[in-house]
Write a structure and sequence with these properties.
- With 408 residues, the chain is mainly alpha-helical.
- It folds into four domains: 2-91, no CATH class; 99-206; 221-372, Orthogonal Bundle (hpI Integrase, Chain A), CATH 1.10.443.10; 377-408, no CATH class.
- It is built from 18 helices and eight strands.
- A hairpin with a 2-residue loop joins strand 2 (18-26) and strand 3 (29-39).
- The protein is elongated and about 90 Å long.
- The protein starts with a strand and ends with a helix.
């Protein structure tokens, strides 16, 4: 099969430009695919199959033509490698460079970064899977709006507004944070298209997205003890409860939790104490934390490696565990990490120490996420303070605070 890009000069639009087509030829059978590109006949170099000129439009459209030709060649070679022939009708399904095609190109590039160091743009397998999931949702949305052929430069605020409305429809009811993550991918792809000269402009640059702060859910030490002290009738729930307790005392993310084993990650320091040392998969930061007795006991029970469970099932079962012991909170795998950060801070560990335990890239992250101060610590701190334990209580009882305020 042969391909050819040609200008259909006999057709012109209101601007006097003619459409460019990609022609497929198999023996005597031909099929043409419109590239979605118009060019003035005087600006078309038929010998070199390029648009003349140095303006942005010429550069972008030439890049698009190159992309279309390479994609056509790749598909033809792919069929040849399978000892199959690409029919003209199949080839005719090829379309010009659309937003969805650039999205696919971006995700394929990301796939090549799996396992690389983060400093080199590396991602994890889990991150790649989230790209695929969001790509699926974006495809569904564009198909519902009959916009599968939309060009990247035409993706604008109005499109994002439509996506937001679509996402909030009763049959989907996506949460705000879920919607924002998809919008960020819209913005990333638009930026990628412009940087690679596959788009004339990036209208999504001006679109601002903000996460709505959600109440941080964590368990108190009393609630954690409820789970620890309960014996579950089901082996499945007992394993989930034990896994959750380990997570509460380590602050592991789900991915790090499933990879944790004592043989590899527990080390004895010079003073004889046992510490957990590991590299967080998300941030590639080295975390360091004590091996608390609760963790040591449970890891010994499971011979140094916790039972594997999928994230989805773990989230479902831990809610069941919480319900059985009477914890009226929306408990998830991330609740354990939040609980670890909050409890260690309120137990007296410094912000810097907790940041190192959790493997945060910056102490500011720890300060932002884990500064809930429990009543228990406030009471302890006020009891240690001479000013509060004597002056505050006495003044309040004597009414002087109220009188001073009124006097002002």
């Amino acid at each position: 099969m042969k391909t050819l890009i040609y200008l259909l000069r006999k057709k012109t639009n209101k601007e006097g430009k003619s459409p460019l087509y990609l022609r497929f030829t198999e023996n005597t059978i031909r099929a043409e695919v419109f590239t979605n590109i118009y060019v003035h006949p005087l600006e078309w170099d038929n010998d070199n199959k390029i648009i003349t000129g140095n303006d942005t439009a010429a550069r972008v459209n030439n890049n698009r033509l190159t992309h279309i030709q390479l994609e056509a060649d790749r598909i033809i070679e792919e069929y040849a490698g399978k000892n199959e022939y690409l029919t003209v009708n199949q080839a005719k399904e090829l379309k010009a460079t659309t937003f969805l095609e650039i999205l696919q190109l971006y995700i394929e590039n990301q796939k090549e970064n799996i396992g690389k160091p983060k400093i080199d743009g590396g991602i994890t397998e889990e991150t790649y899977k989230t790209y695929l999931y969001r790509q699926k949702r974006i495809k569904e949305f564009l198909a519902s709006e009959k916009l599968t052929n939309i060009k990247p430069e035409n993706a604008d605020k109005a499109l994002i507004a439509k996506f937001t409305t679509w996402s909030k429809a009763p049959e989907r009811s996506f949460q705000h944070s879920h919607i924002v993550k998809h919008i960020k991918l819209f913005k990333t792809v638009s930026k990628y298209a412009l940087e690679n000269q596959l788009s004339l402009q990036n209208q999504l640059l001006a679109v601002k997205v903000k996460y709505q702060p959600k109440p941080k859910v964590f368990l108190t030490q009393v609630e954690i003890r409820k789970i620890m002290n309960h014996t579950f009738a089901s082996k499945r729930l007992q394993e989930v409860a034990d896994t959750f307790i380990v997570q509460c005392y380590t602050g592991f993310s789900y991915v790090d939790l499933m990879q944790f084993n004592t043989q590899e990650h527990v080390q004895t320091l010079d003073d004889g104490t046992l510490w957990i040392k590991y590299q967080r998969q998300k941030s590639e930061i080295r975390a360091l934390l004590p091996l608390f007795s609760e963790v040591a006991r449970l890891m010994k029970k499971y011979n140094g490696k916790l039972p594997h469970i999928s994230n989805q099932k773990y989230n479902a079962y831990i809610k069941e565990v919480a319900d059985i012991v009477g914890i009226d909170k929306c408990v998830t795998t991330h609740t354990a990490r939040k609980s670890c950060g909050t409890i260690t801070l309120n137990a007296g560990f410094s912000l810097e120490s907790v940041s190192r335990m959790l493997g945060h890239a910056s102490v500011k992250t720890t300060e932002k996420l884990y500064t809930e101060v429990l009543e228990e610590r406030m009471i302890k701190e006020s009891a240690k303070s001479t000013m509060f334990s004597s002056s505050l209580t006495t003044n309040y009882n004597q009414g002087t605070l109220f009188d001073q305020k009124k006097a002002v």
